[in-house]
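User: Hello, can you help with two protein structures?

Assistant: Certainly.
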Amino acid sequence: MDEIQLGALHLGDIDTVQLLTPDGARLSDSRYDAWVADVGDEQLLALYEDMVVIRRIDTEATALQRQGELGLWPPLLGQEAAQVGSGRALRSDDFVFSSYRENGVAYCRGADLTDLVRVWRGTTASGWDPYAINMATPQVIIGAQTLHATGYAIGIQNDGSDAVAVAYFGDGATSEGDVTEAMIFAATYSAPVIFFCQNNQWAISEPVTLQAQRPVAERAPGFGIPSVRVDGNDVLAVMAVTRLALDRARGGGGPTFIEAVTYRMGPHTTADDPTRYREASEVESWRAKDPIARLAAYLTERGLMTDERSEAVSAKADAVAAELRAGCIALPDPEPMAVFDHVYSTSHTGLSRQRDHYSRYLRTFVGEDTTPSQALREHDRLDQDRLGHQDRKVS
């Protein structure tokens, strides 16, 4: 870790870059101050608004899931600074490869709000057009996106562009073979890729201390990749280290590994109950390091956080949440036979046979003269009747 010097804060036994303390005090760091010297008052306020808005998106989507409008949702509560600080450092021609939790990054990249929930509502197998916002759709297979990012970065290199690929993943992914393979290839070819690890302390119910006996950032130098550990709840520090890594990649310096130390305040997904495996006192200790409250304190101390500004940000967040909810509920159910679309670039006899079998299966519920959608609705109604009958028998 010689090439990128680490900063001032000491967490555990490795220095961690920090420019804003939890109570909002601005620290000076000779290595990183220059990388955020251009961040003026309006940009600071914009970063604050971004974090408030994506937290509101997150809470609204969680509510939608609890109300039965989404099948699942992966909350990002507590990780807003890591996602906004890095996401706003990127250029439009950089390409992002994320896991399923980077909805804040997707917002920064310009993803349509409704596109954030399509896959979780079950109306599509994807979400947005990757090439419209230069961000691949979320990867559910843990760590696989690091290989995609490295491959894309090598393509960038071959094209002679100075764009950068960025892979987002959690601390749990660093135990996957895909991440190891990606770092080997990235180091070997000096690929312009950033490995951005959001260490939120828990891989579902497994604490990071169980799988990483040393700080996660210490793994990358073994592959020949410089790394840096940053306070992931400090939006300014995250932006600084990301900008430095981007500059290094654009100049031919190769990959960088960033470990953003943050905390997942909520469950792993809405199907998870974190109270079963972590103490309330731990959550409260991290609540005191909240990324939004931290920046708000700094803005208040500088006289920038007025009542009018705060109200305007809250109004923007509420409007975004309302748009998200309306877009989610208005999503139409896909046609049943659409499940066969886009499986292959061209159809073949095997796919045609499956399509025919499924179509004939659906028609058994109502008859030959109905559409597949009507047949599927009748299928679902009969299925619900069957389940209700079973429930009555049990009761």
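That covers the first. Now for the second protein you mentioned:
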Amino acid sequence: MAMKTDAFTGDSPGDGNPAVPYTECLSFRRSDALCEGRSWLRGQEPVARVRTSAGDSVWLVSSYPSARQVLEDARFGPVGAAAPRVPRGGAALRGAVMRGLNPRADEGLHGWLRATADRLIDDLMAWGPPVDLRAGFADPFAAALHCKVLGVPSGDWPRLMSSLDIAFMASAHPFEGVRPDWYKDAGYMAERLNAPASERSGLLGQLAALREGPEAARPADGTLAAVAVSLFGAGAVSTSAFLVMAVLALLRHPELIGRLRGHPERTGRAVDELLRRNLPVADGVRRVALADVHVGDVLVRRGEQVVVLVEGADFDPRAFEAPGGPNPGRGRNPYLAFGGGRHLCPASALGRVHAETALAALVDRMPGLGLAVPAERLVWRTGFMRRLPERLPVLW
């Protein structure tokens, strides 16, 4: 469903006069550039008390050590986790999801991904330049992967992707289209779960099989459908957004395309560096303290919310040498793009395989790839939970 978000306002309780307002850092809508205020926050108030536009008081964390602690410490959980409700069959459900998102579980995945990427590139080249790489490659490639993983007919991807503009719209208040948008997709997934066994595959097939166990441990159909909707939405949006931003970063540093084409074995490290530099989440990562915890010199009390400014942490010079410039050959790269600890994104390995395949195919097939418009003319999406341009017009 659509995500609630707030603008962050108010002065620091310390010196009370930050160089750049918190609102600017948390509402910054571009992900090809950094808000200058994050450096001030990280250096002066790495754990700062701020207030949302709705009047809620939260802690804003922007240094690498503090951000890593919040993301990895079991005493912090997702918002709403203070009194978690474990669904029936929760352990089996989690196990099925983890298996379904493991790229090693499908021996043919790498070849399938490359063939799919090549097919999409064939279509782009047949159309001729310029083309919108987001609509013509990033979105359908991300959707194709998640259709395969879930066991959804590949031809249904436009229907599912069309819901995401509403599902991931950032709004402090609910709006009319949220509920029908959610139930439309949940109904679709429920239909797939109840299809004949011979027509089920992928993760949906595994989820449907969970209903064959003891009644007391069977997850409800609504729970299984919700899991499927959430996995498709979060996965497709995240992988497509990262791919758009990774390509844009390469286009702004075209010498990197030549290096990767000459040394394709370095693609994995390049993806790691692009993930470190990726700034996709528009309003930070929210966590809630499940106990009283000291973060740096600050005591965060149980029930208080913390917002992790990942873009501050992943550009912290104490953790990354020369963090401002892209360094695809960087050795140690402990970035926090996928979170950390027990809250590490379960699809992190799948996302990396997807990105590595996409970039390898584009660099190999389109070595002359370049922007078709000046970078400053790109139109950036607002009011969305991911920072990305509406279109990415390219030539080759």
